[in-house]
Design a protein that fits this description.
5-stranded parallel sheet; 5 strands; globular; binds 1,3,4-trihydroxy-5-OXO-cyclohexanecarboxylic acid
């Protein structure tokens, strides 16, 4: 089983970016925690980050036939991107939406996720552990 982790804009800044909201764990640390858990679960993972919406769209399209599940933290594009939503819908690869913070407990504009209706489920509010929970959930949706 192969799981593709996709990370959207500004997540490359984790560790120093608003640590009171997102914590001090870097994306590289999260990637390594995910790899450790994936090895226990005997799941292959690939971990990518982009600040470009179009690059994320291309990666979602290319996942078809190459990955069993997509776990996606679309970051700010969660709330704005019809293109990401359409890509997830078009490929048909099961997707799990994750966030570090609880988007429903924050500003109103973060309460709406455009990708949620085309994802199998949403995990948010558990900090870096949201990634581990996303990986574990991917074993169930496959
Ligand atoms: C985020 C929440 C989004 O609202 C925000 O734009 C992010 C990070 C999270 O992981 O909590 O960049 O996706």
């Amino acid at each position: 089983m192969k799981v593709l982790f996709l990370n959207g804009p500004n997540l490359n800044l984790l560790g120093t970016r608003e640590p009171e909201i997102y914590g001090r764990t870097t994306l590289a640390d999260i990637s390594s925690q995910v790899r450790d858990r994936a090895a226990q679960l005997k799941v292959a993972v690939e971990f990518r980050q982009s600040n470009q919406e179009g690059e994320l769209v291309s990666w979602i399209q290319e996942a078809k036939g190459n990955f069993d599940v997509i776990v996606i933290n679309a970051a700010a594009y969660t709330h704005t991107s019809v293109a990401l939503r359409d890509a997830i819908s078009a490929t048909g690869v099961p997707a799990i939406e994750i966030h570090l913070s609880n988007i429903h407990a924050r500003e109103d504009f973060r309460h709406k996720s455009l990708i949620a209706p085309v994802c199998r489920g949403q995990i948010c509010g558990f900090g870096a552990k949201s990634y581990i929970l996303g990986l574990e959930a991917s074993v169930y949706v496959k």
